[in-house]
Amino acid sequence: MGQAALRTALRLAEGERVDSHHVELATELVVRGSTAPRPPTASDLPPHLSPAFGRGEVRR
């Protein structure tokens, strides 16, 4: 990413026209042991703890 930014900056500094400021880079997701689990959502909760409980809404 830094190399692409530097190349673009140098081209602009030399007065060259840059076709696009949009750059797509290949990425890879690395899940490590230090990665926190996602926070729970309402669909993860048991029905009696659901925000819909007590409002007459039925969850299945």
List the helices and strands and how they pair.
Layout: H1 2-13
Describe the protein.
- By secondary structure, the protein is an all-alpha fold.
- It is built from one helix and no strands.
- The relative contact order is 0.10.
Concise description?
This protein is an all-alpha fold and 60 residues long. The chain is 20% helix and 0% strand. The mean pLDDT is 79.
Count of strand segments: 0
Please write the string of helix (H) and strand (E) elements: H
Poorly predicted residue ranges: none
Question: Pairing-aware structural class of the strands and helices?
Answer: mainly alpha
Quote the distance from N terminus to C terminus: 46 Å
Q: Summarize model confidence as the mean pLDDT.
A: 79
| Helix percentage range | 10-25%
List the total number of helices: 1
Q: Which features would summarize this protein structure in a list?
A:
single chain, 60 residues, mainly alpha, 1 helix, 0% strand, elongated
